[in-house]
């Protein structure tokens, strides 16, 4: 899509890409847009984000290892620190949390300059039971990583 004078200024086929104008790709894109409307997929990340943020905030209160929770919608992150005042990165603890959770069937991603931030990304259609199961694994993993028994 573009202004007529721009689109008409190039020879046929001169504007495009690998899947530009591909009828199958266009049909798939339209089907996705229909799903966004019929299943209210724009509201789901907001609701999921509120629910998940409350859970991560509770973990921050429970564990001194959690120095910060940040993000928007359903894309949230939890920064692990050795000390909340100095914000010293808890890189080893983050690595241990990722390893522990993986062994329990939950894949986490650590990121950040020091590898001490856990980024959470879940499907927009995640069921409440599965979300809670993941949070339970994270809680146990934090307890393990912080050496809390």
Short description:
The protein has about 150 residues and is an alpha+beta fold. It has helices at about 5, 25-40, 45-60, 90-105, 130-145; strands spanning about 65-70, 75-85, 90, 110, 115-120.
Q: Under the CATH scheme, which class of the domain at 43-145?
A: Alpha Beta
Please name the CATH architecture of the domain at 43-145: Alpha-Beta Complex
The share of residues in extended strands comes to 15-25%
Number of strands: 5
What class do helices, strands and sheet pairing give? alpha+beta
Percent helix range: 40-55%
CATH H-level homologous superfamily name of the domain at 43-145? Aspartate Aminotransferase, domain 1
The run of helices and strands is: HHHEEEHEEH
Alpha plus pi helix count: 5
Q: From the 3D structure, determine the CATH topology of the domain at 43-145.
A: Aspartate Aminotransferase, domain 1
Mean pLDDT level: 89
Describe the main β-sheet briefly. Answer: 5 strands, antiparallel
Give the N-terminus to C-terminus distance in angstroms: 59 Å
Unreliable stretches covering 5 or more consecutive residues? none
Please tell me what the overall shape is.
Answer: elongated
Rg estimate, integer Å: 21 Å
What would you say this structure looks like, in words?
The mean pLDDT is 89. Strand 2 (75-83) and strand 3 (88-89) form a beta hairpin. The protein has 149 residues and is an alpha+beta fold. The chain has a domain at 43-145: Aspartate Aminotransferase, domain 1. Strands 1, 2, 3, 4 and 5 form a five-stranded antiparallel sheet that branches. Helix 4 (91-103) crosses helix 5 (128-145). The chain has helices spanning 4-7, 23-38, 43-62, 91-103, 128-145, and strands at residues 66-72, 75-83, 88-89, 109-111, 117-120.
């Amino acid at each position: 899509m573009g202004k007529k004078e721009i689109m008409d200024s190039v020879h046929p086929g001169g504007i495009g890409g690998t899947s530009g104008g591909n009828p199958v790709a266009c049909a798939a894109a339209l089907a996705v847009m229909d799903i966004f409307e019929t299943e209210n997929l724009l509201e789901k990340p907001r609701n999921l984000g509120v629910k998940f943020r409350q859970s991560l905030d509770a973990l921050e209160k429970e564990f001194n290892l959690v120095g910060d929770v940040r993000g928007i919608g359903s894309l949230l992150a939890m920064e692990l620190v050795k000390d909340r005042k100095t914000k010293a990165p808890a890189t080893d603890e983050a690595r241990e949390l990722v390893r522990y959770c993986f062994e329990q069937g939950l894949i986490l991603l650590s990121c950040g300059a020091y590898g001490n931030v856990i980024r959470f990304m879940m499907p927009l259609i995640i069921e409440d039971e599965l979300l809670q199961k993941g949070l339970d694994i994270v809680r146990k993993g934090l307890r393990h990583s912080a050496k809390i028994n």
